[in-house]
Write a structure and sequence with these properties.
ten-stranded mixed β-sheet, alpha/beta, two-stranded antiparallel ribbon, Isopropylmalate Dehydrogenase, binds manganese (II) ion, globular, about 350 residues, binds 3-isopropylmalic acid
Length: about 350
C-alpha cells in the first residue's frame, strides 16, 4: 500500500483544532481509497517559542525535507510581537524549502454565502498563483539614522528572471491542465498577469516581458491577459467571472487573496498550498490563528480540510482529493448554516465528522 509521510504542524490558537479535523478527513479518505498517511506531529509555534525561544530551527527544516508534504494549521500568537513567528516559522519554511508557488483557489462552494450580490459558484471560480519567494518579502533593505527625525527606511521589491520564469512556467502549465476550457466550464484557458506596469516599471516590466515571451513561444493556445492590481481588486468584486487563472508577485498576491477569500465565504473556507513542485510542499488554511476562539470548538475546519484536499491532489491522489471536495460541497450545500465561527450550526469536530462520514460512504 502506498504510504505518504506527512508532517503535521498545528501551530497556534485554533490551528491544532482545525488541523485535527483535516487529519480526521485525511484518514477517512486514505481508508476509503486505499493508501496510508504516516503522520508526525511538530509543535512549532508561539507556545514553544515562549518556552524555549525557538521558532523553526535549522535542524527542523532538515527534518521536514524528508516528508512527502506538510500540513500546517496557523502561526501567530497574541503574546508574541508580530513578525517573529511569521518570519521565523511560516516564511522560513516557505523560503528554506523553496516553496516558490502559493496556489490559492478562489472558489465559492454551493450553499456558501458571498458578499458579492448576484454572484454564485459559477461566477466565483478562479485561481490565484502567487509567487512565494521574492518581492518585498526578501528582507532586502534596512534603516539608516533610525530613531532620528532624518530616519530612512527602505524595503525593496526584488525579482530575478529565474524566479519570474519558474513561476510563470508553473502558471502556464497549471492553466493548460486546470484552466476553464480544460475543466469544461469555459471556452478558453486564460492566464492573466496581475501587476502594476504603470508604476513598478522595473519589476513588472520584467514580469510582463517574461510572460509574453513564454506564452508566445510555448503556450500559444493559452489566452494571455494583463490587469493592473488595483483594477484587479475592482473586477474581483464586480466581475469575478472574467477570471480563470491569475499570476502575480508575492505582495500583490498576498493582498488580493484576502479579498478573494472573503468573496468565497471567508477565512473559514479558504485554503492555500505553498508548493515546491520539485520538493516538499506545505498546505494551510489561509486564515490566521483566531486566538479568541481557541479551545471553544466553534472554529470552521473546512479551510484546513480543503488544505488537506489540495495536499492529496498535489501528491497525485486525485481520486481521494475529489472525494473530499465532493464531501465538502455536500456539507456546505446541505448541512452548515454559515461559514462563520460559532454560527455553523455544528461544532468544529461535528463539521469534521460530517465531511469524514461523507468521504467514507
Ligand atoms: C499569508 C499571510 C503571511 C504572508 C503572513 C502571516 C507572513 O498573510 O499567508 O497570506 O504575508 O504571506
Ligand atoms: Mn496574507
Amino acid at each position: 500500500m502506498k504510504t505518504y509521510k506527512i508532517a503535521v504542524m498545528g501551530g497556534d490558537g485554533t490551528g491544532p483544532e482545525v488541523t485535527a479535523e483535516a487529519v480526521k478527513v485525511l484518514k477517512a479518505a486514505a481508508a476509503k481509497i486505499g493508501f496510508k498517511a504516516d503522520l508526525t506531529e511538530f509543535d512549532f509555534g508561539g507556545e514553544r517559542y515562549k518556552r524555549t525561544g525557538e521558532t523553526l530551527p535549522d535542524s527542523a527544516v532538515e527534518e521536514l525535507r524528508k516528508f512527502d508534504a506538510i500540513l500546517l494549521g496557523a502561526i501567530g500568537h497574541p503574546d508574541v510581537k508580530p513578525g517573529i513567528l511569521e518570519k521565523g516559522i511560516l516564511l522560513k519554511a516557505r523560503f528554506e524549502l523553496d516553496q516558490y508557488i502559493n496556489l490559492r483557489p478562489v472558489r465559492l462552494f454551493p450553499g456558501v454565502e458571498t458578499p458579492l450580490k448576484g454572484k454564485g459558484p459559477k461566477e466565483i471560480d478562479y485561481v490565484v498563483i502567487r509567487e512565494n519567494t521574492g518581492d518585498a518579502y526578501t528582507g532586502t533593505g534596512g534603516f539608516t539614522m533610525k530613531g532620528t527625525p532624518n530616519e530612512v527606511a527602505v524595503q525593496s521589491a526584488v525579482y530575478t528572471r529565474f524566479q519570474v520564469d519558474r513561476c510563470l512556467k508553473y502558471a502556464f502549465e497549471y492553466t493548460k491542465k486546470y484552466g476553464k476550457k480544460a475543466r469544461g466550464v469555459g471556452p478558453e484557458n486564460t492566464l492573466a498577469l496581475v501587476g502594476k506596469t504603470n508604476v513598478l516599471t522595473f519589476i513588472y516590466d520584467l514580469w510582463e516581458r517574461a510572460f509574453h515571451e513564454m506564452g508566445k513561444k510555448y503556450y500559444p493556445d493559452i489566452r494571455r491577459d494583463y490587469y493592473h492590481v488595483d483594477a484587479t481588486c475592482m473586477w474581483m468584486v464586480k466581475s469575478p467571472e472574467w477570471f480563470d487563472v491569475l499570476v502575480t508577485g508575492n505582495m500583490f498576491g498576498d493582498i488580493i487573496t484576502d479579498l478573494g477569500a472573503i468573496t468565497q465565504g471567508g477565512m473559514g473556507i479558504a485554503a492555500g498550498g505553498n508548493l515546491n513542485p520539485q520538493g516538499v510542499s506545505m498546505f494551510e488554511p489561509i486564515g490566521g490563528s483566531a486566538p479568541k476562539y481557541t479551545g471553544m470548538g466553534v472554529i470552521n475546519p473546512l479551510a484546513a480540510i480543503c488544505a488537506a484536499q489540495m495536499m492529496l491532489e498535489t501528491l497525485g491522489e486525485e481520486k481521494a482529493a475529489k472525494k473530499i471536495e465532493d464531501a465538502v460541497k455536500f456539507v456546505t450545500a446541505n448541512k452548515m448554516k454559515s461559514m462563520a465561527a460559532g454560527k455553523m450550526g455544528y461544532s468544529t469536530s461535528q463539521v469534521g465528522d460530517l465531511v469524514a462520514t461523507k468521504v467514507a460512504e
